[in-house]
């Protein structure tokens, strides 16, 4: 399946524990892809362990979202490179990404690499604080989306509420700014109803935290988005 057809992804944090049984359920859920990524304590060992456990028995596409270049490793189907557009520091928009490409592009050249325009909208989130973001108004987010598509020509614009459920109206307004760039939504999706609501506006949703807090409900979000 082409990445442009993806509707649902699960995001696994290599710094968090997940049993083999639960990992199997996630990989066999009909989700379109598994993203491996996190903010804190993302190590090469943790990334390799999770990748090998997924590959051992499953064919679901696996993506490494690059938050720390030292945890980069070959073997993934895709690499997502976040550019945090609402960060106050240029290094989170461009410098870290340039360094990763300079050092590791040969490693990634046999996979598909996608740059994501990130907009983090939860001030309480570790990712918001770690990347020194400022909280934008709706018009600011729409302007970032316009820039992602028309200035940077990015394939993905990612609205990230990271741990809390976001504003569907904002997501709808952001989607209206985009034509070619795909809109990803992540943050706080715990129920089928929330998954359906956000998928009405976003091209794809990402479910992460609820894997670790209520796996049964998290798994139901796949059918809610993709149908039986």
From TrEMBL:
Pfam families: PcrB. It catalyses: sn-glycerol 1-phosphate + all-trans-heptaprenyl diphosphate = 3-heptaprenyl-sn-glycero-1-phosphate + diphosphate. Its EC number is 2.5.1.n9. Pathway: Membrane lipid metabolism; glycerophospholipid metabolism. InterPro entries: GGGP/HepGP_synthase_I, GGGP/HepGP_synthase_sf, GGGP_HepGP_synthase. It comes from the Bacteria. It is an enzyme of class 2 (transferase). Its cofactor is Mg(2+). Gene3D superfamilies: FMN-linked oxidoreductases. Mg(2+) binds at residues 13, 39. Keywords: Lipid biosynthesis, Lipid metabolism, Magnesium, Metal-binding, Phospholipid biosynthesis, Phospholipid metabolism, Transferase. Sn-glycerol 1-phosphate binds at residues 11, 158-163, 188, 208-209. Prenyltransferase that catalyzes in vivo the transfer of the heptaprenyl moiety of heptaprenyl pyrophosphate (HepPP; 35 carbon atoms) to the C3 hydroxyl of sn-glycerol-1-phosphate (G1P), producing heptaprenylglyceryl phosphate (HepGP). This reaction is an ether-bond-formation step in the biosynthesis of archaea-type G1P-based membrane lipids found in Bacillales. PANTHER family: HEPTAPRENYLGLYCERYL PHOSPHATE SYNTHASE, PTHR40029. Belongs to the GGGP/HepGP synthase family. Group I subfamily. Homodimer. This is Heptaprenylglyceryl phosphate synthase. It comes from Oceanobacillus neutriphilus.
